[in-house]
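ok so for the tutorial part 2 we go from a plain amino acid sequence to predicted structure tokens. step 1 is just haveing the sequence, like this:
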Amino acid sequence: MKRILIVEDSATMRSLIAASLEELVVPVKIVEAKSGFEALRLLPRETFDLVVTDINLPDINGLELASFMKSSDKHASIPLVIVSTEGAERDVEKGLGIGADAYLVKPFDPEALRQIVLDLFAGRSRER
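step 2 — the prediction. this is what the tokens look like for a chain of 128 residues:
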């Protein structure tokens, strides 16, 4: 079973992402965090196969979370997907530059998210 951490402050968006990922052909366990700080508390306690994060979060934002993960020996190999309303080219480039494996702009197509996740689980890299 694959374990996925969803980091999103909007309960509605967390539910939408979780529902999208629960339809994967791969069995998943979804863990939710409402903030970057909460995600930083969960990362050392549990093993995750994937992290999906928003950028605009209270306290520690998604880019700071991504930067922490990618600079940590323990978490650098965890695939990271950013799902954000920040859709400008420079925002996408910044997210991917920090080390995100994929970047989706909200509103997103749930099927596109599922395909990105399946590709990452299969070891295929994605850009968007």
